[in-house]
Amino acid sequence: MTMLVISTAAATVAACGRVRRAVEQRGTAPAGRWGSRVRLEPVYNAGAAFGLPIRRRRLIAASALALGLVLADRRRDPMGRGLVLGGGASNLLERLRRGKVLDYVRFPRAPGRLGRSVFNLADFAILLGAARMLLCRRPRGRS
Predict the structure, then answer these.
(1) Terminal CA-to-CA distance of the chain, rounded, Å?
(2) d(Cα 100, Cα 140) in Å, to the nearest integer?
(3) Fewer C-beta neighbours within 10 Å, C or N terminus of the chain?
(4) pLDDT for residue 127 is more than 70
């Protein structure tokens, strides 16, 4: 595994934890707004993505398996792998510690279920990393 994967994953886990603590310290203050397109709306999610009702043990096992598969795929972009690993590890660690994940960003003007769903920094890291992995191949001669 390259140092870029490790350092990106570690930085992502650290950033996710720092933002989560800042949101938690904010307490139960009214939700913040950045215009009408983005809301800061802290909620705990004990289910899977989009609040899907998946049992905790199955969710943790599936998350660990997915992280292992991402880690093993050396053909993909190392920065993307680091983002996916860091975001996934952050959510997984939070689920193991607390049994739930703190989500805090909502896009109320987004269509359908997306507009009702709430996300966190780890979710965005996973999304960006997955996009990079799909679009960018690892340069030849590197591991």
Answers:
(1) 7
(2) 40
(3) C
(4) yes
Higher pLDDT, 44 or 71: 44
Residue identified by tokens 């780890």 is 122
> Are 120 and 101 within 8 A, CB to CB?
yes
- Token look-up 């191949």 returns 137
**Catalytic position from the list 103, 104, 106, 121:** 103
Q: Is 103 tagged catalytic?
A: yes
Residue 84's nearest CA partner among 143, 45, 127 is 127
Helix (H, G, I), strand (E, B) or coil at 105: strand
For the chain, what are the domain ranges?
Answer: 3-31+51-99+119-135
Nearest to 120 by CA among 56, 43, 46: 43
Does 77 qualify as catalytic in the annotation? no
pLDDT in tens, 93-122: 998 899 889 999 999 989 988 888 899 999
* C-alpha–C-alpha distance, residues 1 and 56, integer Å: 29
* Of 77, 123, 125, 133, catalytic: 123
The whole-angstrom separation of Cα 19 and Cα 97 is 17
